[in-house]
Amino acid sequence: MKPGLLSRLNSAWAWVLLLFLVAPALIAIPVSLTAKRFLSMPNGTYSLQHFHNLFTSPEWLSSFAQSAVIAVSTSALATVLGTLCAIGLWRISSRFSELVRAVLLLPLIVPQIISAMAFYRLWIPLGLLDSYPGLILAHTILATPMVLITVSASLANFDPKLEQASRNLGASTGTTIRRVILPSIRPGVIAGALFAFILSWDEIVVTLFLSKFNVYTLPRRMWNGIRENTDPTVAAAAVVLIAITLIAFALSLILSRHRAKARQN
Amino acid sequence: MPRLQIPKLHPGWLLVAPFLILLAALYLGPILNIAWLSFTDPEPGLGNYEKLVTSDALARILWTTFRICLVTTAFSVTLGYCIAYAMIHAGQGGRSRMLVLLLVSFWLSVLVRTFAWLMLLGNHGLVNDTLVGTGIITRPIAFMRNELGVLIGMVHYMIPYAVLPLLASMQTMDSRVIAASRNLGATGAQTFWRIYLPLTLPGVAAASMLIFILSLGFYVTPAVLGGGKVLMVAEYISVQLLVTLQWGTAAMLAVLLLLGVLALLWLMSRFMKLSVVFGGSTR
Description:
The complex is a heterodimer of chains A (265) and B (283). By secondary structure, chain A is mainly alpha-helical. Chain A has helices at residues 5-22, 28-32, 49-56, 58-92, 95-104, 106-109, 112-126, 132-156, 160-168, 173-184, 186-202, 205-210, 218-228, 233-264. The two termini of chain A are 34 Å apart. Chain B has helices at 13-40, 47-54, 56-89, 92-107, 110-121, 126-133, 147-171, 175-183, 188-216, 220-225, 233-242, 247-271, 274-280. The longest helix of chain B is centred in the N-terminal third of the chain and has 34 residues, at 56-89. Residues 279-283 of chain B have low confidence and may be disordered. The chains are: A mainly alpha (265), B mainly alpha (283). At the A-B interface, helix 1, helix 4, helix 5, helix 6 and helix 7 of A face helix 1, helix 3, helix 4, helix 5 and helix 7 of B.
């Protein structure tokens, strides 16, 4: 059946929309190259001074480092907790455990402002405000459901008979998880770790409430820069973030193609 | 002495326990505490909920939030439908190229995107400068610090979230139905309006509710592009907490927001298995 005229028009329209989704972010590139000292489009003269500022200013560098520390710790913690959870729920799989699963996914759907409020309320008496453990704990609670989802998706394709076989041959629960289950759900675990990292690396609403002076993550500094709306260093930071996103995305594409090929062979 | 009956617990719970306990203690507990607070702070009673009726400011904020969420949902789902439809009907290569663009926009930081809109839509932003420069308009159009700016930013953010559940519902459709409709003499447009669209309505409903839920609590884009002029519930809550320190009012609004989200989620689960929606939108 040949696609009709309307269908072809819609297809062109869809491409316009997809470009609308991606293209606006590119404006950060010319703005970051402006020779002026305030946020503006460069008119004729270009300069790399704002990138120079980004990579030499102690504030921006420390924010990069802090975000990296928090995101890596969050990703590690969330991956362990989420994977254990997913395997546990998969093995139980009763009506009740599905209910528990829904509860465990709540942090993904509860508006972030309410999550921020809840953490803020509890972190004050616990003395966790404005500290690494405070932010890492909060981000871990937000990110673990993401790992739970990706690992559960992998487990759905895993044959439970393999687990029974392993246990019948005398392997303990720990050995079965390590040697039989984990290797077959590795793609889900890796995807979960990646998502958890990005969530924490990019998280701003909860961070706005929980950080102040000691901890000043990259999103927090960008938020300030956007609010003040003057220093073009923000544009340079945005360009770096776009580049990191594209690299991470390309890597994940290559990884998944690689896996698909390996499966075919 | 009668023996205590201890129900046998599945050993799998041992694996679930660490996160379940963490979540209950550090997340669900404080949320319940907030609900409690809405009835007790500053004094016990329904005083905070009374403000819903007595305060004009609150009523205006709730109405603004509702209106913006509704318009955002309508635009995001309609535009998302066009994209999903084109993706389903594109060839293998076209579809994967479209998917790449969609996922890249998913992965782009919300702060980067908000910053980009700030640069594009300002009075001396690229859009206005271009329009003035080419003589199409003489005075810059106010795109920002009003609802138009908030809507542009929000629709831009939400479209990918709408596409994924729509794709899922279009993929599961039996394409023979369409072929049958064409064979029986219906035109392409008739087939779309009378067969295709009705069959994908559950997906449309699920996508709409997902977007509405996400929009209700959205903070970053409205706060920046609204520039303090367009106040939605999430921003109002943060002002109550950080500036005026009125926990009671903030708690009441949080309870309201949460109830709204949970009700919509329940409604959504009647149209589509939630695992389909969440499995797709893992961001």
